[in-house]
Amino acid sequence: MSLLFEELDYRDTPIGALSLRRRREMALNVDVYEIKLGEEFLMTSLFTASEIALAHLGLKDQTGTALDVVVGGLGLGYTAKAVLDHPNVHELIVIDALQAVIDWHQTGLLPLGPELSNDRRCRFVHGDFFALATSNDGLDPLAPKKKFDAILADIDHSPEFLLDDGHASFYRPEGLAKMKAHLKPGGVFGLWSNEHPDATFTARLGDVFAEARAEVVTFFNPLQNNEFTQTVYLATTSTTPSF
């Protein structure tokens, strides 16, 4: 039996106090890992269905044999792990603005950390996903202007409920268009949201990309004895290269 509660690490960051906690959920007889920013919960290992779905839905129709993928937001690592479960992934770059989160994976404080860190296909990048995604040089500091088969983002709570107001421009047509420029023909942008589908945002994606849709991910919450719904937005570029 593990300890009922343990704070594994605490860091002061530019966006506030960040803590990693492990607690025993007695009702389910499992250890739960949680990351908090101040008093706000950022993520939990108790419910990960939609984070995993982001990877599987994003790569479902990518048929290449050597896919290059970016994940924006490392978190507890569930999206990154699900990406690496696809054998046709050649390289995965995981970008996170918080060095503490990367450290927790590299030092093994988080359960998925050793698996991600030891996979040669996976590389962590400490950086601002939104700044890189909308820059001319793109998302890989080691390979400027490189294009990707998939860009998957799980950082903000939703396109309207942001961790930082500075992210807002990314979700506007101009920001999405800049990010789209870093995708290959037929490449996919996937976005996690904690909310139900937003028809306005889906339409905005459709204005920027060749195709766009919102996939509902519903899972059962045994603690509340009800179902909970989140969303994965998917947008695909044209298969015809633009010049």
Shape, principal axes of CA atoms: globular
Number of helices: 7
Kindly state the number of beta strands: 11
Q: What is the structural class?
A: alpha/beta
Largest sheet, strands/sense/barrel? 7 strands, mixed
Report the CATH topology name.
Rossmann fold
Order of helices and strands: EEEEHEHEHHEHEHEHEE
Residues in helices, as a percent range: 10-25%
How many structural domains in the coordinates? 1
Q: Mind telling me the C-alpha Rg?
A: 18 Å
CATH architecture tag: 3-Layer(aba) Sandwich
Q: What integer is the average pLDDT?
A: 94
User: What would you give as the CATH superfamily?
Assistant: Vaccinia Virus protein VP39
Instruction: Catalogue the unreliable spans.
Output: none
How would you explain this protein's 3D organization?
Strands 7-6-5-8-9-11-10 form a seven-stranded mixed sheet. It has one domain (47-236): Vaccinia Virus protein VP39 (Rossmann fold). Helix 6 packs across helix 7 (199-208). It has helices spanning 49-59, 78-84, 99-106, 113-117, 129-133, 173-180, 199-208; strands at residues 5-13, 16-25, 30-37, 40-44, 67-72, 89-96, 122-126, 148-153, 183-193, 211-221, 226-236. The mean pLDDT is 94. The longest helix is centred in the N-terminal third of the chain and has 11 residues, at 49-59. 22% of the residues lie in helices and 37% in strands. The protein is built from seven helices and eleven strands. The radius of gyration is 18 Å and the shape is globular. The protein is α/β, with parallel strands linked by helices and 243 residues long.
